[in-house]
Specification:
It contains 4 helices and no strands. With about 130 residues, the chain is mainly alpha-helical. The longest helix has 30 residues.
């Protein structure tokens, strides 16, 4: 089970690092507002916290949080790749209809981390019910 936790944390960290790297470029669209860059920084920080939590605890809530963080980030990257979502209040439109290496890598890392976190959650659920 520790290997599962390490892989999940690694996927979340990959996502966090890439989001931190891309944040400055996405902030340019709204330099004084919330901006995509600040949203990227928030996502990255949450991913780091979720990675640490799943590494330290490895319980059902940790797997659930890791799954929510990873899968919500994956949903956002896919949504903004294929759908031109307009600005919503202070949140800018982040439509970007292309795939590039960093974007693809973060999507793959988030998908793997999210799927494995769901599996970890279900395995612990099964163990609890077997006892």
């Amino acid at each position: 089970m520790i290997l599962l936790r390490v892989i999940i944390a690694a996927g979340l960290i990959v996502s966090a690092v890439i989001h931190f790297q891309l944040a400055p470029g996405f902030q340019q669209a709204a330099p004084d507002g919330i901006g995509g860059g600040n949203l990227f920084r928030i996502q990255a920080a949450v991913a780091v916290l979720a990675a640490l939590y799943v590494l330290v605890r490895g319980d059902r809530p940790a797997f659930a949080i890791a799954a929510v963080v990873a899968l919500s980030a994956l949903a956002a990257v896919v949504l903004y790749r294929y759908v031109q979502v307009p600005a919503i209040g202070p949140i800018p439109s982040m439509y970007e209809p292309v795939w590039y290496a960093q974007k693809a890598l973060t999507a793959v890392a988030e998908a793997i981390a999210g799927l494995l976190a769901v599996i970890g959650f279900l395995l612990l659920h099964r163990r609890r019910n077997v006892r």
